[in-house]
Amino acid sequence: MIMPMHNNDDALAAFIDPDSVPRPVLAVGATLITDTDGMEMEVHHHRKAQLIYMARGVLTCEVSRGLWIVPPQCAVWIPGGTSHSVKGVGAIDVYCLFVEPASAPTLPDACCTVSVSPLLRELLLRCAGFPTMYPARGAESRLVKVLLDELAAAPVEKLHLPMPSDGGLRRIADAMAADPSDRATVDAWAKRIGVSERTLSRLVLQETGMSFGRWRQQIHIILALQWLSQGASVQSVATDLGYESASSFVVMFRKALGASPARYMAQRLVGRKPK
C-alpha cells in the first residue's frame, strides 16, 4: 500500500501527472509497505526529469542499457523523457522530485546515482511539504533554487550496472544474478552461450565499458547492497556471493565503494557520506 507522508495536498495520493504542474519542481514523499513480491512500477517516462531519493530501504531503477541501485541516503537521477522501471522490496521511505528541464540545465543528461548530503535531504523533505501550486515568487521558490543548486553539486556514486543489449550477455547477467556464487571462468561462460573466450571478453567491454571480471564484481556489489540493506550479515552475503571468507568480500567492497560494508551501511543510516 502507499501512504503519503508529505505534500500538503496529497499530490502523490491523487497520482497527479507531474508534467501538468506549472512549477520548476514538484516534490512528493511516501511510505511504501510491500509484500514479499515487492513493488514494481512498469516502464514509463515523463517529460520532466526525476530524482528518486531513498530515506529507508533499497530501490532499483532500470533503463534500456543500465541498472541503478539506490540504497538509503542515495538518489537516482533520471533525465526527462527517459523510459525507466522501478522495483523495491520491504518497508520503503521514498521521495520523488520532478524537475522542469529548463529549470536545471546543468544537471546530468544521463542517469546516475548520487549521494545525498544532509542539506540536500532537508531541502528535499521541506519542499515535499509545499503545496503542489506553491507561490511562484516567495520563500518556497527561493528554497527550490537552493535545492537545485545543491542537487547539481551532489557527488555521483559508483552504483551503476551497465546492462548489455546482446542476448547472450543478458543471459549471463541473469544467470549471475540468480546464482552469484557461481565462479565459472570467462571461458566457461563463453562456452555456455556458444562463443569464444576472446569474443565474450570483447562483447562485454564493447557493451558495458568494463572487463568481464569488473562487470561481475559490479553485479556482486548491487546484490550485496540489496541484501545488506535488508538486514543480512556480512558473513551471509559473502557466502551467498561465493567468497571464500568474509574478509575477502570486505576487501572487494572497500576497494569498490571506499568503506567496509558495515561502515558504509552505518553511515547511510545516519545520512553521512562514507569516507
Please give a handful of descriptors for the protein shown.
Jelly Rolls; five-stranded antiparallel β-sheet; 9 helices; 37% helix; globular
What does this molecule look like?
By secondary structure, this protein is of the alpha+beta class. The protein has 2 domains: 2-157, Jelly Rolls (Sandwich); 164-269, Orthogonal Bundle (Arc Repressor Mutant, subunit A), CATH 1.10.10. The chain is 37% helix and 23% strand. The protein has 9 helices and 12 strands. The chain has helices at residues 118-128, 139-152, 167-178, 186-192, 197-208, 212-229, 234-240, 246-257, 261-269, and strands at residues 2-4, 25-33, 39-44, 49-56, 59-63, 66-70, 74-78, 84-88, 91-99, 112-115, 156-157, 160-162. It has a 7-stranded antiparallel β-sheet, with helices on one face. The two termini are 36 Å apart.
Uncertain residue ranges = 1-14
CATH architecture assignment of the largest domain: Sandwich
Lateral strand order in the biggest sheet: 1-2-9-4-7-10-11
Percent in helix: 25-40%
Q: How many β-strands, per DSSP?
A: 12
Write the layout of secondary structure elements.
Blueprint: E1 2-4, E2 25-33, E3 39-44, E4 49-56, E5 59-63, E6 66-70, E7 74-78, E8 84-88, E9 91-99, E10 112-115, H1 118-128, H2 139-152, E11 156-157, E12 160-162, H3 167-178, H4 186-192, H5 197-208, H6 212-229, H7 234-240, H8 246-257, H9 261-269
Antiparallel strand pairs: 1-2, 2-9, 3-8, 4-7, 4-9, 5-6, 5-8, 6-12, 7-10, 10-11
Helix pairs in contact: 1-2, 4-5, 7-8
